[in-house]
Amino acid sequence: MSPVIATLLLVFLTVLIAAILLILCSGMTNISLSSPEPVPEILDIQSIHHENHLGQLTLASRLYVVHKGREPEPVFQMQNGRFSYVIKEYGPIILSDYRAEIYVNGVKKNVFISTLQGSDFIPTSHYGVKLLGGTGVRGTEWSSGQWAWIDLKDQMISEGDVVTLEIIRKSDGKVVSRSTETAPEIVRS
Questions:
Q1: N or C: the chain end with fewer CB closer than 10 Å?
Q2: pLDDT tens-digit profile of 105-143?
């Protein structure tokens, strides 16, 4: 065999082995050309109130939030190498591991909620939040069915505003829950 053919054969075998290794290693990494998975709505804004706790119209900007626990409808997803319908369930949220951000009409508001832990939360209108309370923010976990209210600074939300609540994991900054609700019209009597 001539040295030229031997060299070409050696180059061909090297490229072939490199291609096989590339194919084998590509299965170990998560290369996805599809769109990222949508952010679930674990904590759901149930309602927005313009009245204070006494029922007086003050444009109170109070959000009533509930931990959904699970999706109401099954979703179509791949599981164990095949597609199936799955009902997504959400476990409790460890309160001290998360923070919240609020957007009104797509604009991030100057609202500082550095923890969902009710006992550690320091209410101050300087940070846009007056109160954080309810069964969901007591203890260490916010479990399915538990609720809370976030009482924002008065007049932060007005009728027809689109309000988004994002719950963010502190360790990596990932948004783990996103809920959007439109503020109701103000009923004047």
A1: C
A2: 999 998 888 888 888 877 665 678 888 889 999 889 999
